[in-house]
């Protein structure tokens, strides 16, 4: 990567592929001979319509999304989906099931309480959110409208490696994939709905992607704001109102780049290599560094770790910053460090971090 760039380990907004940023820069003033920036285009003009259609089509190729699903480009972040999902899929008295493996699943559950009757059927809270349950250790409510999971908990670094089968009568599994979206292949047909904020793996903040099975739209509660009604957005191809045009354009460039890399199988291989390098460094440090997450469910994307001598954490973060590695401070709710190593983090960035960890350990082990 270029000398003037840092290795940015932020959890989101997060680092984007340098070649994508350069391409956007080259098209900034005059998008492909249109004489306009994408920021200046009518969202109903043929130029922008071609941009959003290509973004959707490339995303469909990447995730192999069938025509049974709508792909929606929305606003309001994943947080808005915490409300939109129950508003669209439930009546106020319907029960739904949540497996809560971290802070985001908990937030989704709490928001759902306003619009339906959610139950937490398993929570990892008492074990500080370091686990994913085995699928025979909880009981689903057969009358639940859906089963909700957070596929990757960004703060705690806990990731589902496979998915529970929903036993509710409509077989609807819903996943928040904000922080591992497009990081590996996913069998979309197992889900009723997948949602993700773009700002970790696929673009800038301001775009939220919803992939929803077509038969699940059209039954929103009467109080549903028009902006949260999936049917309105699906009927209008995400152009009911002015969408986040520039963000959608950037997501499109990222999707194209992921396809050029060889698709999500290849992307996953790269992510596994990076994550292994970092987890191995932690695990082989004789306890100097620690990752509290159970090994089998450690996230490929967000790697939380602590120092045995926690008083050295601020020094570690300072030394990293001196070497142009930034945003390594852990989330305020868990402390320690967190390295987010999304798709766009180069292998060289993780190598550099691991080299610092080794040096730091040598210099600080008395
Ligand atoms: N869900 C997960 C897993 C997240 O990591 C985040 C992010 O920051 C959110 C939801 C909330 O996303 P947003 O800030 O886009 O509303």
Automatic annotation (TrEMBL):
Give the catalysed reaction(s), semicolon-separated: 4-(phosphooxy)-L-threonine + 2-oxoglutarate = (R)-3-hydroxy-2-oxo-4-phosphooxybutanoate + L-glutamate; O-phospho-L-serine + 2-oxoglutarate = 3-phosphooxypyruvate + L-glutamate
Q: Where is the signal peptide?
A: none
Transmembrane regions listed in the UniProt entry: none
Q: Which GO biological process categories is it annotated with?
A: L-serine biosynthetic process
Q: Which domain of life is it from?
A: Eukaryota
Instruction: Mention any one GO cellular component term assigned to this protein in its UniProt record.
Output: chloroplast stroma
Single GO MF descriptor: pyridoxal phosphate binding
The EC code for this enzyme is: 2.6.1.52
Keyword entries, A-Z: Amino-acid biosynthesis, Aminotransferase, Pyridoxal phosphate, Serine biosynthesis, Transferase
Coiled-coil annotated residue ranges, if any = none
**CC cofactor:** pyridoxal 5'-phosphate
Q: Pathway, according to UniProt?
A: Amino-acid biosynthesis; L-serine biosynthesis; L-serine from 3-phospho-D-glycerate: step 2/3
Q: Boundaries of each Aminotransferase class V domain copy? A: 6-353
The family annotation for this protein states:
Belongs to the class-V pyridoxal-phosphate-dependent aminotransferase family. SerC subfamily.
Give the protein name, as stated in the record: Phosphoserine aminotransferase
Please report the organism this UniProt entry assigns to the protein: Aquilegia coerulea (Rocky mountain columbine)
Q: Which residues of the full protein are shown?
A: 65 to 430 of 467
């Amino acid at each position: 990567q270029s000398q003037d760039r840092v290795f940015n380990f932020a959890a989101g907004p997060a680092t984007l592929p340098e070649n994508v940023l350069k391409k956007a820069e080259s098209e900034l003033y005059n998008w492909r001979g249109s004489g306009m920036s994408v920021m200046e285009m009518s969202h109903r003009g043929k130029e922008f319509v071609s941009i959003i259609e290509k973004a959707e089509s490339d995303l469909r190729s990447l995730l192999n999304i069938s025509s049974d699903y709508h792909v929606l480009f929305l606003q309001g972040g994943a947080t808005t989906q915490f409300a939109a999902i129950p508003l669209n899929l439930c009546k106020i008295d319907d029960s739904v099931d949540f497996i809560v493996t971290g802070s985001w699943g908990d937030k989704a559950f709490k928001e759902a309480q306003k619009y339906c009757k959610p139950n937490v059927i398993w929570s990892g809270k008492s074990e500080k959110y370091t686990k994913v349950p085995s699928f025979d250790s909880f009981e689903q409510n057969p009358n639940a409208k859906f089963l909700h999971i957070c596929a990757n908990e960004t703060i705690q670094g806990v990731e589902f490696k496979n998915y529970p089968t929903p036993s509710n009568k409509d077989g609807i599994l819903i996943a928040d994939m904000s922080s591992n979206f497009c990081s590996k292949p996913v069998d979309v047909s197992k889900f009723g709905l997948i949602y993700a904020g773009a700002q970790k793996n696929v673009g800038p903040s301001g775009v939220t992607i919803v992939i929803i099975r077509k038969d699940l739209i059209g039954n929103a509660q009467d109080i549903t704001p028009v902006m949260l009604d999936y049917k309105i957005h699906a009927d209008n191809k995400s152009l009911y109102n002015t969408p986040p045009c520039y963000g959608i354009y950037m997501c499109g460039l990222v999707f194209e780049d992921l396809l050029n890399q060889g698709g999500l199988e290849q992307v996953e291989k790269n992510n596994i290599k990076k994550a292994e390098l970092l987890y191995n460094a932690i695990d082989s440090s004789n306890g100097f560094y620690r990752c509290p997450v159970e090994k089998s469910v450690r996230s490929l994307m967000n790697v939380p770790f602590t120092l045995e001598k926690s008083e050295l954490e601020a020094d570690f973060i300072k030394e990293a910053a001196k070497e142009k590695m930034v945003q390594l401070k852990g989330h305020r709710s868990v402390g320690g460090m967190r390295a987010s190593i999304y798709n766009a983090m180069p292998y060289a960035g993780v190598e550099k971090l691991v080299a610092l960890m080794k040096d730091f350990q040598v210099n600080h082990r008395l």
